[in-house]
Write a structure and sequence with these properties.
Structural class: alpha/beta
Distance between the termini: 46 Å
Radius of gyration: 27 Å
Number of domains: 3
Shape: globular
Helix content: 25-40%
Number of strands: 29
CATH superfamily of the largest domain: Aldolase class I
Largest sheet: 8 strands, parallel, barrel
Length: 655
């Protein structure tokens, strides 16, 4: 054990013939940083910076092994030599930082979701549960050719100097399709029973072992549970693990959860799951592996969580994707006793939502993600120190304050409230969303660290604004919801979601039997509010003008949104516009047909709508100090949390 607050986490581990200095691993994390299927500097930076930040093993995102199964232009290919230099250079930098680079080899099988003309190649003719795609069923020759493709890519990466490869056999992709009795419906030697279903991966691993140098690491990521009836459950996963372990070829096992059915929610368990939600499954797999190292995955976000998982013998390696997205220096900070400075991960899955839409990976409170030097980044010192006043202490104002102060500016931060955080603090009061306060706690830690003067419960009026003796004024005063457009309220309580949570106007609600939530926002916070309303009222109905709900929630977390709402008996009414409220009756109009309907006995109407910029100052007042003013966050344009924090960061780097 080492001299550290986390002795298990920072103890060495043998993976095959390689000794890792600690138990931290960056599991495969899609970034969409590649371009035209080629490695870019940012793709490389993302991996290298996590190795520089103290992570012992970094696993690349998916590497395509088959020209007929390339997801999109941001998928790195490994089946020809165009990326050889990129692999070599990335590996050399990771090795120089003390890390081991593992490449994840991947084939989607029947989940050929992206290319309009390529025919997906699969194990059976069962439709993919996400896209309903039906694959071409491979014959013996095609299967063997695909095994050869995998082996050839592994050999190429071996020649490029990488420490090893990981086979992606989880989340419903090709290898998972072979392993699972739910998806493998074959009646030949590639299916039927455990021996048949594991034949593909056993031939594949044996072929890679024979083709590559001694000591080349071979890992397998597979399901700990698919959470579908008839699929791989923990008992079946243990049987597969035990059988594969007897071959003595696989150097480590990693376990994911879920597949592309509705169980995909388990793939990236969000803040509504418990920390280390699946560790008991991983503990069973560790026993089944018989001494071969096991990696735990899924909502492990702090050094304390990781240390406990290891101490409880749930795993040998800790895979942390979203925590490493938040902070590349997670390992170094934890090891040095500076865990309080780790930028926290709150598992809201916003970063996963970005890549699922095909956009580059982004994280709301890590604007330096994927940049060179990210692991030890500090704001560049200013050449001229300025006096800066920031009006508004929500996440945008807090970010601007600490970054500007860290650069050497004198910063005064004013909050009209007794607490910092603005609307984000309200969101954190909602059921299941309390972890959002960690963002504010980190920003408070930073403003204290860099000497920002914080003025709570101090409004800035027109006279104050003009009288401020500063070089720059940053307005971060946010935005407020606007009443629903063209909605006629004759009588009855009509409250914004924010006012409801603050208690403003709640005295007008005479009884708590039936509420209607007007949803013109579709974000995770709105459905947190819905959870609260479902608990407060006997009956809740949610109406939206859109044809669906949760359109601004990442797909995995939206599954949880629907599960909670339907589980609470909430009625969802899409494609309607609220028209009128009178005598407890709300009139709705279908936005497509114009047909009217009503909801009777409504006790309260709550709304979440597009917001309106508010700063409390007249334009003529602003004009008098316009040369000093910057607007950030919702005060500039009402958007989301990522935009607010990034606005604050970039403004502070400009002044």
């Amino acid at each position: 054990m080492t001299d550290t607050p986390y002795p298990h986490l920072f103890s060495p581990l043998n993976i095959g013939h390689r000794t890792l200095p600690n138990r931290l691993c960056l599991p495969a994390t899609v970034t969409n940083f590649a371009e035209k299927n080629l490695i870019t500097e940012r793709w490389s930076n993302f991996l290298v910076e996590r190795a520089r930040g103290g992570t012992a093993m970094v696993v690349s995102e998916i590497i395509a092994v088959d020209p007929e199964a390339v997801a999109q232009a941001t998928t790195v290919i490994g089946f020809d030599g165009r990326n050889d230099d990129g692999f070599r250079n990335t590996n050399e930098l990771i090795e120089a930082a003390g890390g081991a680079m593992i490449a994840q080899l991947w084939h989607p099988g029947r989940q050929q979701l992206w290319h309009p003309t390529k025919a997906p190649a699969g194990v059976s003719d069962g439709p993919d549960p996400y896209s309903w795609t039906v694959a071409h069923v491979m014959d013996d020759s095609e299967i063997n050719n695909l095994i050869d493709n995998f082996i050839a890519v592994a050999k190429r990466l071996d020649v490029c100097g990488l420490a090893g490869i990981e086979l992606h056999g989880a989340h419903g992709y090709l290898i998972n399709q072979f392993l699972s009795p739910w998806s493998n419906l074959r009646n030949d030697d590639w299916g039927v029973d455990l021996a048949g279903r594991t034949r593909f991966v056993r031939q594949l691993t044996a072929g890679i072992r024979a083709a590559c140098r001694p000591g080349f690491i071979i890992g397998l990521k597979m399901p700990g549970t698919e959470s579908v009836e008839g699929g791989i459950d923990p008992l079946e996963a243990a049987r597969i693990t035990s059988l594969l372990a007897t071959d003595g070829i696989i150097d480590y096992f990693a376990y994911g959860q879920g597949n592309f059915s509705l169980s995909l929610e388990n793939h990236v368990p969000d803040m509504y799951f418990q920390p280390g939600h699946f560790l008991e499954i991983h503990k069973q797999m560790r026993i089944a592996a018989g001494g071969i190292p096991v990696m735990a995955l899924g909502r492990i976000g702090t050094p304390e969580d990781a240390e406990k998982a290891l101490a409880d013998q749930c795993s040998d390696l800790i895979g942390m994707s979203r925590a490493h997205i938040s902070d590349a220096a997670f390992g170094n900070k934890a090891k040095s006793g500076s865990a309080e400075s780790i930028r926290p991960c709150v598992f809201d899955n916003s970063s996963w939502g970005e890549i699922h839409q095909g956009k580059p990976l982004a994280e709301f409170h890590n604007p330096m993600l994927g940049q060179r030097g990210e692991a030890d980044w500090l704001p560049e010192p200013t050449k001229v120190s300025k006096k800066i006043a920031i009006i508004g202490a929500g996440p945008a104002g807090l970010e601007a304050a600490w970054v500007a102060a860290a650069r050497g500016h004198h910063v005064e931060l004013y909050s009209a409230s007794k607490h910092v955080g603005g609307a984000l603090r309200l969101e954190a009061s909602l059921p299941g969303r309390g972890d959002m306060t960690k963002i504010l706690d980190h920003q408070l830690y930073q403003i204290e660290r860099y000497g920002v003067r914080l003025h709570l419960d101090q409004s800035i009026d027109v006279t104050d604004l003009i009288a401020l003796s500063v070089d720059t004024i940053i307005l971060a005063t946010g935005a407020h919801p606007r009443p629903p457009e063209d909605f006629i309220l004759v009588d009855g309580p009509l409250l914004s979601g924010r006012n409801y949570l603050k208690g403003v106007g709640r005295s007008t609600i005479g009884r708590y039997r039936k509420a209607v939530l007007i949803d013109q926002d579709q974000t995770a916070a709105t459905y947190g509010l819905a959870d609260q309303l479902a608990a407060d009222f006997d009956e809740l109905l949610i109406v939206t003008t859109r044809p669906n709900f949760a359109q601004s929630v990442n797909y995995c977390s939206s599954i949880g949104v629907y599960r909670r709402l339907y589980g609470a008996g909430v009625t969802l009414i899409p494609a309607v516009k609220p028209v009128r409220m009178a005598a407890g009756t709300m009139t709705l109009e279908n936005v497509y047909s114009g047909q009217s309907s009503t909801i009777d006995s409504v006790d309260a109407v709550i709304y979440v709508t597009p917001r309106r910029v508010v700063d409390g100052f007249e334009p003529m007042t602003i004009a008098k100090v316009s040369d000093k003013i910057l607007r950030i966050g919702d005060c500039r344009s009402p958007r989301n949390l990522m935009a607010a924090i990034h606005d604050g960061h970039h403004a502070a780097m400009l002044v």
